[in-house]
Amino acid sequence: MIRLATWNVNSIRIRLQLLEKLVEKENPNLICLQEVKAKEADFPFEDIKKLGFENIALYSMPGYNGVAILSKLPLDNIAQHQHVGKDDARHISALVDNKFEVHNIYVPAGGDVPDAKINPSFEHKLNFVDEAAKFFSTKNSKPRVLCGDFNIAPSENDVWSHKALLQTVSHTPIEVEKLENFFKRGKFADAIRAYFSESEKIYSWWSYRNHNWATNDKGRRLDHVWVDKELLPAITKAKICKYFRAEQRPSDHVPVIVELKI
DNA sequence: ATGGTGGAAGGTCCA
User: Which nucleotide has its C1' atom closest to residue A109's CA?
Assistant: First the structure.
C-alpha cells in the first residue's frame, strides 16, 4: 500500500514541524516536496530520517525551487531532469519499491503577466509544460505516477471563479490547453478528480496575501497527482489536507494525498 | 494600476 503525499512546502527548514505533523496525522510512506529552498548542505537529512524516511532523493539549488522524494520504501534509478535547458531543480524521479516510477515536478509559476512575448517567466512556463508533455509521451516499462505543483488549475472548479481568473496566470486558456495536451499525450488519469465530482470546487493553494483566506476561500487547485491509466483502479483514496493552511506558519499550499494499492 | 504576504539571500528576486 502506498500513501503518497505531495506538498509544496515553501522552505523545508521553516516547515520541519509541519512535516512532522503530516507524518503523524496522515501516515504517508512516500512524500514528494516542492520548493524545498535549501541547497544540499542545508537540507535536514537527519531530521527527516528520524521521521522514518530513510530514503531521500534530492535535487536542489540555493534559494529557489528544489524537489525532494522522501520514502520509507526503497528508491532506485534516482534521476534529476532538466527542461528548457535549465538546471533549476524542478523535476526528480525514482523507481519506488521496484514497482512504479514516481516523478516529482515543480512547474515554473510564470510571473504575473500572461503574455509570453513580454514576460520571459510565462514563456518559460509554457515551454516547460510542452517539454514535459514530450518527455512523458513515450511508453515506459514501469507504471508512472506524476505529482507536484503544476502551477496550473485547469478546470472551472479548480478555481474560485473561472471568469475572474481567465487572465490570471495559472488559469489562462493557453496554460490550460498546454496542461491538457500534456495530460492527454501521456494518457494519464487525474487521481484527485477520480475521487471528487467534476462539479465540486477543490483547491490546494490559498494566497498568503489574503488573510481572510478561510472565509473568502479564493483558492486554486495547483497541486496534482496523475497516474498511468492502468493504475487508476489501484487508487483507494484521495484527500486534500486543507487543515494545513490553518496551521501556524503554514505553506500557501496544502498536502495532497493519494492512496494506491500497489 | 496597485498592493497585499512570505521565504531566502544578502543589499532583491521569486512566488
Answer: B15
Please report residues contacting nucleic strand B, using a CB cutoff of 7 A: A 10-11, 13-14, 35, 37-39, 42, 62-64, 108-111, 121, 151, 208-209, 211, 249
Domain map of chain A by residue range?
2-260
Query: Can you tell me the distance from the alpha carbon of A13 to that of A59, in angstroms, rounded to the nearest whole number?
Result: 15
CA separation for the pair A119, A113 (Å, rounded): 6
Q: Looking at strand B, which nucleotides approach a protein CB closer than 7 A?
A: 4-9, 14-15
Nucleotide nearest to A110 (CA to C1'): B15
A223 close to A203: Cβ distance less than 8 angstroms: no
Q: pLDDT 10s digit of each residue in chain A, 262 long?
A: 999 999 999 999 999 999 999 999 999 999 999 999 999 999 999 999 999 999 999 999 999 999 999 999 999 999 999 999 999 999 999 999 999 999 999 999 999 999 999 999 999 999 999 999 999 999 899 999 999 999 999 999 999 999 999 999 999 999 999 999 999 999 999 999 999 999 999 999 999 999 999 999 999 999 999 999 999 999 999 999 999 999 999 999 999 999 999 9
Report the top-level CATH class of A2-260: alpha beta
The pTM assigned to this predicted structure is 0.97
Q: Could you give the CA distance from residue A20 to residue A32 in angstroms, rounded to a whole number? A: 14
Rg (C-alpha) for chain A, rounded Å, is 17
Closest protein residue to B3 using CA and C1' atoms? A209
